[in-house]
């Protein structure tokens, strides 16, 4: 069995691949694979013509992030010990892949970890997706060291450490192949957004740990597939967050969480309507509607979890700290 594979998911990514593939090819030691989600542009021709060392897995349809990786990695089952899942819009640095794999390989109790993720547009700032390692609060809201909601911190070495976190970003994620397949991969019902947080939650429930390695830095463009401010992204985040919580907490706790979340998120939807953002308000409503209509497709684990904790972060309610106490930096929590 080979040690590791770098696996990039692509859908109509000609422009981002032409920008970011050179750094991956230059700075990587392990095999590079691209899973193509039935692209209709010239992206496949781009890398097959210019990078013959890259391996291709072609899918028949666009299965999104979750389904695309599930189908593609199934083709690599039994061939690699580790997978490094990398967004197509990420610039990497020297020895990034070996350092990530070596770190995870030396921590058998860990299933996955991420590097420090900075913004590609402003390289002194943390990136929205993962930043310095992610946590969940008691209502299932994600936040990061270096990013709380839409407030980003500048990087001055404050997170150049190794810590245990609640979730690792799918923008750059190294995971043991055995653990990925033990959990049956990502939940394909999510399609895109929060599927990696759900997977990390399931891994932690099974007794595994998730880590962050600040000695490795990558730069993420973000929004290459879906703009962060788009109503569709809001819809997916609402629906998938509810789905993730439903799958990973007991029914009584879920009832309490959804009551609290629905009050806050419906108030936010009214705010969108009053500010003229009708599509964003509809995104919230549709997120709840489609969660309830698809709830029968979500599987709850039958086995009692070895670890029944949603969070190891410093606060129980991030919204209270951010909106009421006005704490905008992780070290203030």
Task: Please explain how this structure is put together.
This is Glycosyltransferase 2-like domain-containing protein. One of its GO terms (molecular function) is glycosyltransferase activity. Belongs to the glycosyltransferase 2 family. By secondary structure, the protein is an alpha/beta fold. The chain has helices at 14-27, 43-50, 64-74, 96-105, 177-182, 195-205, 231-248, 251-274, 278-293, 318-324, and strands at 2-10, 31-36, 55-58, 80-86, 90-91, 110-119, 134-136, 142-144, 147-148, 151-152, 162-165, 172-176, 209-220. The protein folds into 2 domains: 2-220, Spore Coat Polysaccharide Biosynthesis Protein SpsA, Chain A (Alpha-Beta Complex), CATH 3.90.550.10; 231-332, no CATH class. It is built from 10 helices and 13 strands. Strands 1, 2, 3, 4, 5, 6, 11, 12 and 13 form a 9-stranded mixed beta sheet that branches. It has a two-stranded antiparallel sheet with strand order 7-8. The chain has a two-stranded antiparallel sheet with strand order 9-10. Helix 1 (14-27) runs parallel beside helix 2. The N and C termini lie far apart (44 Å). 45% of the residues are buried. The mean pLDDT is 92.
Q: Which helices and strands occur, and which strands form pairs?
A:
Elements: E1 2-10, H1 14-27, E2 31-36, H2 43-50, E3 55-58, H3 64-74, E4 80-86, E5 90-91, H4 96-105, E6 110-119, E7 134-136, E8 142-144, E9 147-148, E10 151-152, E11 162-165, E12 172-176, H5 177-182, H6 195-205, E13 209-220, H7 231-248, H8 251-274, H9 278-293, H10 318-324
Parallel strand pairs: 1-2, 1-4, 2-3, 6-13
Antiparallel strand pairs: 4-12, 5-13, 6-12, 7-8, 9-10, 11-13
Helix pairs in contact: 1-2, 6-7, 7-9, 8-9
Domain Glycosyltransferase 2-like: 6-109
Keywords: Glycosyltransferase, Transferase
InterPro entries: Glyco_trans_2-like, Nucleotide-diphossugar_trans
